[in-house]
Amino acid sequence: MKLFKIEDEKFDEILLKAGVKAVSSTYLPVVFLTAIIVGFILFIIFLIIFNILYAIFALIGGVFIVILVGVLYPYVLAEEKAKSIDENLPYAFAFISALSSANIPVVEIFTSLSKEDIYGGMSEEAKEIVKDTKVFNYDIITTFLRRARITPSKKLSSVYYNIVASLIVGAEMKNIFHEIYDRLMEDRKLELLEAIEKVEILSEFYVIACGMIPLFVVMTVPVASSISAILQSASMFGNPNLLPLTFYLWVPIASIIFMGLVYGILPKDFKLNVSLLDILKEFDEPEIEGIKMKFKWKPVHFITLFLWMLSIVFFILFFLRKSLFMFHGTDFLMFGILFLILPFILTSYWHFIIENQKEKYYPIFLNDLTMAVRSGMDIIRAMQVCAKTNYGPLTKIVKKMAIQMSWGRPVNEVFEDLERTEKSLIAKRIASILKECAVSGGDIKDILTSVTVHAYKLSEMKREISARQFIYVVVIYLSFFLYLGTSYIMIHSLLPTLLKNVHGGLGIEFYKSYLFQGVLIYALFSGASLGILTERSVIAGIKHILLMLIVGYMLFKLYIGG
Question: In terms of pTM, does the model score above 0.85?
């Protein structure tokens, strides 16, 4: 009985950490009852459709699966919550540290944090702290001790105990929060670098899988095929079907697996929420406070329509089977598809570049704003001064905020709009701190200083990570050009020599066709993989895709395959 009691207590703790509103004495019976009901239903269904043997297997399998899922669910949920907390922990404490600079009470800081959904699991933790202190009237020390035991994150539990110790001895919480933030940022930086090391290992396998193996197949198939034709014997490596299998199946599948693994390993700390459908927003009628404004034509509209007209022309040339210079047939089909989707691709990539550039200017803008406020200006006057400075793509936003503030709009609403409209997580976090800073009414100088330091740390961290990843961008490009060089040697030297004494076999045009298609497929998937590798976004790979496609296509048409 004691053993079962221990297990129940452990499961109760897991349920508590997972946020499941039940105890094991009620949760487990519900799981077992559900398993029996599902098993009985499956037994009846399989008995009617098949026979008693299948029905028994369905009964046992159904009961086992439901119990397994029911028991594992709290563990999985707790693990997901812990992951969300750990990912957002340093950035949440940047928020806490900034507000504490203005000597805002601890409970009020966590109340503000609970309203910010961008901090994921930390926002939920803050809601629990607020509920315990304001609804159940626990004192702040008891609340932190309780959350230290309940939270699924070991790292956050340690932080809670640190806060409790500081509260007991009466330490200056502003300094404690600053120290915790600095330590968490250093830990997060190390975690990101560890993730990059894992991705580096995967990148080496990717170059082998999608770069070296296709080259091996391209070089082996014609050689083995020619030898088989001369000896009049079959060879597995001489089977021409290996070429389409390699380019249409192996390269896409290996690339998708690589992108999925990298996307799962790399954290979301610097993710930009840019969509391929951003072009559609350019054609929306502008709307201000529910009032639709007159539609205005922009350069993007004319460019989009021009590209779509070119697409129609290329489709017509394809269906009429016309030739133009060295282009014909499938070339026009490819051009038609490319120009049809090009507006989506270029617009989304342009938005991606803009958001990336804005991230780089945020620390500079915040530093200027902080200096202006420290010189004695209020936030509105300081924003007007900053609006006269060039911050690249951020300038328009700064001017808009300055105008809104000068018209008397509340400062917190201006920053709230910034948080809602920005697509960068870094920008959203900065805006959330500035918004709460305006609401709290604390000393804005110290808060702005803290936010500026945080912004520079994030910028430095992102630069260091990008520098680590650059070498693998070079490696993947080298493997692409190695494939082009191998294709040139194959078509102009190896294949003519191998095939001149072989009669009735596959001609050079067959291999040339697959080598050309291999260039396009490799460019498409390698470019997308580079986007995931460098920025955790396929959209970031658009420049690599277009560059590889254009260079590969033109080199093949002009010099390699004709």
Answer: no
